[in-house]
Specification:
By secondary structure, the chain is an alpha/beta fold. It is 65% helix and 7% strand. It has 17 helices and six strands. Strands 2-1-3-4 form a four-stranded mixed sheet, sandwiched between helices. The chain has a two-stranded antiparallel ribbon with strand order 5-6. Helix 2 (21-47) packs across helix 9 (266-281) and helix 6 (180-214) crosses helix 9 (266-281). The longest helix is centred in the middle third of the chain and has 38 residues, at 227-264.
Length: 458
């Protein structure tokens, strides 16, 4: 194996890809899109609505007025209870009102019916505020019917909000306050990024092999280098392309958000806090989005103590350790799967024929993704531990465990060593397939053919 020739192949693979328009566009547009996910909601919230929504209310129950308070977005005006509703429905919009709300008298069960009339679909914020105020009025009236003394005081006394301080104790007795929700969000993000990029860049290698084979360029190249050197150079070259994209994405995203932060000020901090809380809290015990938690997180985003608590919990994460693990597992995971994708690409003449042969390559990735979804809720379960050690699933599953800080050193080292050794072994086997397949044309290879190619002696 000649390193200077491999270096030339790496340089070629790197240069032809970074000069493509698709690479330039995705490298520039991706960080703009990522930054927009933070900036656009802030800009929209700053723009607000067209103005204050004026609402007319006809209250037949006679108890609602004290429950309706004006906000910076909604103003309520109460009409006499004997107002002709049919006549008012025809003129309220002409008087500059957004909607007409009618509340009926109490029925025999102590409930009321509420109707809202508007010239366009009712604003969700208005609908929610009206419903909340009416519910509060009906509830208070029903409670008052029980004639309990000091009812308000009793209700205030029994109203309790419990927050659990999750504290992790190490073997040496030190204690650390943790936020499982933040760890779950970070674990999900890192693991999913591993899955996406390993699959994306692995397929890039496969398509590059097919393209060169189809255009017969490979016949010229292998006259100067061995097929194995060509495969290794192609894999490393694409890996450098991926790292280049990562670096540019990080720098551009941070730069764009920093500039926007200077323009939008504290509102950007509130928005990013809401985003973090939503990501961390918006998952229920089944792994599905928890809408209630998301709403509560978003509504509390402006609270200074919540912001301080969030950043305090983020400070407990060992980011150099997490980022280091991410880079190691991304590189080794990519190298492992890229070698297999290269072997698949060398065995076919066009991309349409890759589906059957690429199935054994994609199945472990998909299995790892499903196990990962379970792992960021149960990072120390037997399934999570073993899947984080087995090389074909470890890139995703281990990254789902790392943010929690509970991975023993021996498990981490064992996982990395096994992943590296598996990469070496698979590269050797893939190289034997690649050596024969890259110069094979006109016949769709089968798994039996691949087995024969592996058995060929050099």
């Amino acid at each position: 194996m000649k390193l200077n020739k491999i270096g030339l192949i790496i340089s070629r693979e790197y240069s032809i890809r970074v000069k493509k328009k698709s690479f330039i566009l995705t490298t520039i547009l991706t960080p703009i899109f990522m930054a927009a996910l933070i900036i656009v909601p802030v800009a929209i919230s700053m723009a607000g609505s067209d103005g204050v929504e004026n609402i007319q209310i006809v209250d037949k129950s006679g108890v609602m007025q004290k429950y309706f308070e004006n906000t910076d977005r909604i103003e309520y005006s109460f009409l006499n209870s004997d107002t002709d509703i049919e006549q008012e429905k025809s003129v309220f919009s002409q008087h500059g009102f957004y909607a007409l709300v009618t509340v009926s008298q109490f029925d025999e069960t102590g409930n009321v019916s509420v109707s809202a009339y508007s010239k366009e679909p009712l604003n969700v914020e208005v609908k929610k505020d009206v419903a909340s105020n009416v519910e509060k009025a009906v509830r208070d009236r029903k409670l008052a019917s029980y004639n309990i003394e000091n009812l308000d005081k009793i209700l205030n006394d029994v109203k309790t909000k419990v927050s659990v301080n999750a504290i992790t104790m190490s073997d040496d007795g030190t204690e650390k306050e943790d936020s499982v929700e933040i760890y779950m969000a970070l674990a999900y993000f890192l693991s999913f990024m591993i899955y996406i990029f390993v699959f994306l860049f692995g397929n890039m290698v496969m398509r590059g092999v097919i393209e060169e084979k189809t255009n017969r360029i490979v016949e010229v190249i292998v006259s100067s280098v061995t097929p194995f050197e060509l495969m290794l150079g192609k894999i490393v070259g694409v890996a450098l392309v991926a790292l280049t994209q990562f670096a540019i994405w990080i720098l551009l995203t941070v730069g764009i958000v920093s500039v926007a932060g200077g323009m939008l000020g504290d509102k950007l901090v509130s928005a990013t806090t809401a985003t973090s809380q939503i990501a961390g809290m918006g998952v229920d015990t089944e792994g599905a989005p928890d809408v209630t938690a998301i709403v509560e997180a978003a509504s509390s985003a402006g609270n200074d103590s919540a912001i301080s608590e969030l950043f305090g919990q983020l400070g407990n994460i060992n980011f150099p350790y997490v980022i280091g693990c991410f880079l190691i597992y991304f590189l080794l995971g990519y190298l492992l799967y890229a070698s297999m994708f290269a072997a698949v690409g060398s065995a076919v003449d066009n991309e349409a024929d890759t589906q059957q042969l690429s199935l054994p390559v994609t199945i472990p990735l998909i299995i790892g993704l499903f196990i990962m979804l379970n792992t960021f809720q149960y990072p120390s379960s037997s399934l999570s531990v073993w899947a984080s050690i087995i090389p074909f699933t470890s890139p995703m599953v281990m990254l789902a465990r790392v943010p929690f800080g509970t991975v023993p050193a021996w498990q981490l080292l064992t996982s990395i060593v096994l992943l590296f050794l598996t990469f070496i072994g698979m590269t050797y086997l893939s190289g034997k397939i690649y050596k024969v397949g890259i110069l094979t044309y006109g016949k769709k290879a089968t798994f039996k053919d691949l087995y024969k190619w592996i058995k060929y002696k050099n």
